[in-house]
Amino acid sequence: MSAAGEATRLAAVHSYRLLDAPRPTVLDELTRLASSVFETSMSTVTLVDRDRQWFAGNTGMPDSGGPLATSFCGRVVDRRLALVVQDALDHPVYRTWGTVTGTPNIRFYAGVPLIDEDGHMLGTMCVLDDRPGSAGDRQLDMLTTMAGQAAGHLAAVRSRMLLAEIGDELSRAISREEDFVATVSHELRTPVTTIQGYLELLVENEELAPYRRLIDPIQRNGERLVRMVDHLLAGTRPAAAPLPLLRGGTDLTAVAEAGAAACRAQAAQRDVRIEIEEPAETVRVTGDLTRLSQAAEQLIRNAVLFSVTGTVVTVRVLTDGLEIADAGSGIPADELPYVTERFYRGRHAREQAVPGVGLGLAIVDRIMRAHDGSFTVTSPGVDRGTTVRMVLPVESSLGR
């Protein structure tokens, strides 16, 4: 790239004012979604500066950035092409890098360019793991879709900052709330995520196999704590504050896969199978991939938690949304009107100590209303299962 071109690119990166600033919550949420879909322990939305990289969204990485000299993301920006490294230890250059030989022990990397609406190369959207891996065309396409979502969120963040500067009170209120949520999320989630990362290293140490029965419960409870923090932050957002959305063409099968991926480990622990029924043709809607995937995850996780061992949770991709059905404990008729109330927990959840704080369906309700859609909950009764549907407006469907 020419010196003038690089200067223009750097000016674009700095225009978002996120270097050395609190991470926007929506970008952290997007990286968590990417880690779930790709089943990796780390993911970042990376801004590439002149001689360093900065994680504007981060899941699993123990720091906030690093030098470009040993940056996979820097290679993506230099080439303006996707980069997949299946095993960094097998690469003649990467195997000597400190991030490979030491913490966070990167083995697998897949990253795609992060390009803003003006065509400027800002950095990357990437997933990383401490184990070798691979990424095919379908996965890179999904990662590219997520990079587009990240670019859209960055544009929205910049617009709100500019509006706040000229005195827009609503924009200032949203910015204050996002700063608060980002700070709380960082202070609560980062220590737990770091602990989980080290626990994974202990699990992989064969010499510690006799202690695995002690390590596994710590991991499960750490994951439960992270989910609870996420629920509290998402579910207690002031009702008057608009939910930030990035409306774009979204593949409903990708939404279903992302939601299911986040729940498969818990389903395996409970011996519950998750099956996705896809239509013959791709179904696309206008919506926010991250938010819709969060809604799908909440509904699938609920279905898993209330399912009987050995049963199946079915996720159907419809022409106007998703349907999730289980054969679990069901919901009594007198409780159905209250299931979307914040902090509401039914008798079965209380008596059986089902994990959760009663915010899942309230979060789904808010996400669907923000999309001008809805969701319904139906249950024939106790022990007869539950079916929920996420429905988006017909006029927003983009069949292909």
Report the sheet-strand fraction: 15-25%
Strand segment tally? 13
Q: What is the overall number of helices?
A: 12
Helix-and-strand structural type: alpha+beta
Q: Looking across the biggest beta sheet, what order are the strands in?
A: 3-2-1-6-5-4
- Helical content stands at 40-55%
Radius of gyration in whole Å, from Cα?
A: 21 Å
The major β-sheet equals: 6 strands, antiparallel
Order of helices and strands: HHEEEHEHEEHHHEHHEEHEEHHEE
What is the average per-residue confidence, as pLDDT, rounded to a whole number? 85
Flag low-confidence runs.
395-400
What is the distance, rounded to the nearest whole angstrom, between the alpha carbons of the first and last residues? 37 Å
Shape, principal axes of CA atoms: globular
Feature tags:
400 residues; alpha+beta; 6-stranded antiparallel sheet; 5-stranded mixed sheet; 12 helices; globular; disordered C terminus
